[in-house]
Write a structure and sequence with these properties.
Blueprint lengths: L1 H15 L25 H15 L3 H15 L2 H11 L5 H14 L4 H13 L3 H13 L6 H10 L4 H14 L4 H13 L3 H14 L4 H13 L3 H14 L4 H13 L3 H14 L4 H13 L3 H8 L10 H13 L3 H9 L7 H14 L3 H14 L4 H14 L3 H14 L4 H13 L3 H14 L4 H14 L3 H14 L4 H13 L3 H14 L3 H13 L3 H14 L4 H9 L12
Length: about 575
Amino acid sequence: MHARWLVTTLTATWLAGCQTLSPPPPADPMASAPPVESGLDAAGLTTLISAELAGQRGDFARATRGYLDAAQRYHSAALAERATLAARYADDRKLLERAARRWQALAPDAEAPARLLAGLAMERGDWLDSLNQRLTLAARGGQGDLTGFAETAIEQKAAPAPLIARLQDFLAEHDDQPQAQLATALLEAAGGDTRRAETRLSRLAERHPALPGLWLARTRLALQEDRYAAARDAARRGLEAAPDDSRLTLLLAQAQLRLGNVDAAESRIDTLLERHSDAPQLRLALARLYLEEGYPAPAKRLLLPLIEQDDASPTAFILLGMIAETEGEVDNALLYYRQVPPGDGFLDARRRAAQMLAEHDRLPDARTFLHVERLRHPESYGDLAAIEIQLLREHQHDAEADALLERALARHPDDTQLRFMRGMRRYQQGNITGMERDLRHILAQQPDDAAALNALGYTLLDETDRLDEARPLIEKAYRLAPDNPAVIDSMGWLQYKLGRPQQALVHLREAYRRQPDQEIAAHLAEVLWQQGQRADARRLVAEALERFDSRPRIEALIQRIPALAPTHARPE
């Protein structure tokens, strides 16, 4: 279901288009700025002249700071607006936000700074701040684009609960805001509360039946719940209100495919293609949709014209290779995969080709293919060797994988990926000293390699008593990659080892939310247990035993703390 939703979302995003905060500057980017008013003293005039000259020279950061100083001196919203315009071309998001906030403070009823601040907040992942700016606009009757915001937040996997709570507070005072109702329903559905979302959408349909976004949401929700006839009917209702809405057309086609009405779906898709005749990305997205729904033949018809173009998309070759695979045409699939040139999709195509050959009991052919590709593309030697090494390990040829890894490293001793692979292999073999040597070699070349910092820091933390050495490595990895679940887990485990269980729980819960795996679950369960939250710890362990096929960390934890085992599994 998630893959299908992603295909639809990506296609809808393409159809809707996009906007950027910083377009290329015009010949005179300050020409549209509000005029500087009279009544200046000498110091103020000097500041403004300096800012004007800096802007004319293209030094927009200096111009921004000058206008901001003048705006503060004279409490002028017009000068703050001028500062914001200059900051848009300064390539400094912090400076742009500072200017926009000054503008908003001096002109609290202006829509432009609120829209700009909402976009900046979304860029840095501060979803709640972005929502607050949009709700400020909505409360004044402005355009907060709340539904677009909700869709983006869902796509980016923002936590829905705080956004829903804020929207509910807003709706308690502004119940007549259909966009806010719709955004709330979208987030409720994404958070799993589909019943509440459907109830909200039903009430909205009674009051605003001509709202296209309403039927778009109802169609998506019905598809999410496998109610295909309801999805078809909702999409049709939406198209009555907005007959040219390409997103509804696409969703109707998807519903028809789910219902097995392939001819009806193709008719809708042909309508889209007629409307966007020169749109290769749309063809690719529609081909993906057909493949996701299990219809390779119409997908192939969409893709074949694309590979006849001089600038054929690598994705088209990859998708055609996947179709050939499903049809049992292994050699044809190999031909498609090999046509993907260096660049985007190159390694993915080689990986798919090698895996395909191995799955058809042609592992020697897969190895020969990768060897030839290394000769054809020496610039990708390390990446292609890594694909072969991984393939050998997946088929239990560890000795051959180790030998290839050593040969590849002898040829490319500074290849970071290969060096990291050997470090992890040495860790699996219990050779902590060898692993440390490989990771420190990487860090000597690339001191900001977050993966190497985290791997070394966590190993020293978990496998040795060298806490003082592990700490700066993990803390640096966290500064470099604060959103990486593995790094967040390491930071949580570090806090636990430092005797800070409450801070540890914050990190471990966040790591598990982002990436539920058995090792993070084991860390979180142990800290919960030690903090006296034993029912929660047992529930987490029971969930992990049910959820993960391989769970060595969970099993080791139960061995150390037998009381953590679910009741029916505890030893007598």
